[in-house]
Amino acid sequence: MSEWKTFTHDAAHDGVDPRIAGGRLTVDLDALVENYRLLQRRAAPARVAGVVKADAYGLGASRVGPALWRAGCRTFFVALPQEGIELRAALPQADIYVLNGTFGPEAAPAFAAHRLMPVLGSQADISCWEAFGWNDGGTPRPCAIHVDTGMNRLGLTPEEAHAFATDNALTGALTPRLVMSHLACGDDAGHPLNRRQRESFQAVSRLFDGIESSLSNSAGIFLGPDFAFDLARPGIALYGGQPFDGGDNPMRAVATLEARVVQVRRARAGETASYGAHGVLSRDTVIAVVSTGYADGYHRASSFAGVPLRRAVPAGGHGFVHGRRVPVLGRVTMDLTLFDVTDLGPEGVTVGDWIELFGHNVPVDEAAAAAGTISYEMLTSLGRRYHRRYVGGDG
Ligand SMILES: *Cc1c(COP(=O)(O)O)cnc(C)c1O
Predict the structure, then answer these.
(1) Going by CA atoms, what residue is nearest to atom 6 of ligand 1?
(2) Which of 99, 201, 223 to mutate to test the pocket of ligand 1 (most atoms within 8 A of CB)?
(3) Could you read off the pLDDT of 12-29 as tens digits, one per residue?
(4) One domain for residues 203 and 338
């Protein structure tokens, strides 16, 4: 093996050797576990599952999953069968649900081989799992039933759910372990759809007597005890994202993204910086050039100027270095981003320093807003060129 580790796409998620990495991502597993515990307190007496789809929102499901397991989490949700297979390797005993359905008869053996439970969200899913779902011992395979109450994405209609519940009570063809639905507007506490979905789901869940029910994502946990049901399914709040619009974020930051300074340069007032020459310097400026760009998920829309379709935060993105916030200067490029570090003075920033792009000082929600997007997309677009390190989490 080479002395220099390179990114491997393997389960270790250690990415690039830190000595040669352009950026580094630190995942604080203690903060993750604290967030899990806070959500547990809010959702009690309901249980709290971990949603670890999209590689735990970009933070590494093979590390996040076991940390949550050690904190007492026993139920996990992924989106795709492949994600379930990878998670099974890290969590031999967990209940793993696959949200996006069965993927048809050809995929069914993969569910059985890895003891994954499909979330059945259509008549086709139900037929597929009924046809496949008798294991060797003759008992029907477990699954979840997804009922759509207002999202119009996945799920049986309440009428289809009613028909299924009646039929299945007679035939016992399937063994549903969970009935669930998903909120469309949970982050907006005053939205009238929340109450309508809750009432619709309450009626449906009564059809599935003795089976656990689940409605709330991260935001739903903060809508009050009526929304808790038996099992909550948070994702973003575990990872430190703000679960609802407005107010203070009760969650601890879990991910810190930092970029390596590879040059510090001085430019004169009137010169311009980066592509398109949009970063016009109004003063003599010290520029820190960092080795992270949009190919690493630091979105081009975070640019200070010159990128159309900007929304939300006209000032562009900010980094944090040596105790100060520093603005992005000019367009973010594929592999490099410029920061105006003039206000740090002559000794301010040196080559080899690290500038925080988000973390404890620049909330991930702020960095996302600067790019006209949301924390979910910021985290799931993190690239593969980082050095990744995991701290805390009791091993
Ligand atoms: C992604 C997802 C969740 C988690 O949502 P967050 O807003 O990240 O908490 C829960 N349930 C379903 C069905 C999902 O698709």
Answers:
(1) 235
(2) 99
(3) 447 789 899 999 999 999
(4) no
